[in-house]
Design goal:
6 helices, about 180 residues, single chain
Length: about 180
């Protein structure tokens, strides 16, 4: 039978899984408290990094409707719950893991879909949401500018064609 403390911990983890856009499971074995503090700062304001118990986390994920591979729960586990841009947090984890090889990204969840460690690393390689939106806006603006120049060119081409026809008609009319 579960103790009230464990039931409360599962309920809290379940709520974090449900309210997060993404969750990344990591192994932190060998990291110091100071390194963990640095890692928490590098994740940004929209992520919360918590050391968790494997069994309770697995139960909480299942209650939240998320199916994760049992291999993700081997060894000491910590979870980064991301409520903002998952790319920013994935970059923070990837960059921290480069400098601190003791941090191992095991896998995670993005919008309810399980992800492997490689997929999370690919996510970290993406540009941020703001950059992608800026590029999209630039592409739209370029297409609008092209369309405007085409629409502007049509009437001026028509006017030049009519003038050329008129000039040709005047020449033919003057020769008769």
């Amino acid at each position: 039978m579960a103790t009230p403390e464990k039931a409360a911990a599962v309920a809290e983890l379940t709520d974090k899984f449900r309210s997060s856009n993404a969750a990344v499971l990591t192994e932190y074995r060998g990291l110091t408290v100071a390194q963990l503090k640095t890692l928490r700062r590098s994740l940004g304001e929209n992520a919360q990094y918590a050391v968790v118990k494997n069994t309770l986390t697995k139960i909480a994920a299942n209650e939240a409707g998320i199916t994760l591979d049992d291999q993700l729960f081997a060894g000491p586990t910590a979870v980064a719950f991301v409520t903002g841009d998952p790319v920013e947090s994935a970059k923070g984890l990837r960059d921290f893991a480069k400098d601190n090889p003791n941090l191992v990204i095991k896998g995670g969840v993005l919008d309810g879909k399980a992800m492997s460690a490689d997929e999370i690393k690919k996510l970290a390689d993406l540009e941020s949401r703001e950059v992608l939106l800026s590029k999209l806006a630039g592409a739209f603006k370029a297409k609008q500018s092209q369309a405007a120049s085409v629409f502007q060119a049509l009437p001026s081409k028509l006017v030049r064609t009519v003038d050329a026809l008129r000039a040709k008609q005047d020449e033919q009319g003057g020769a008769e």
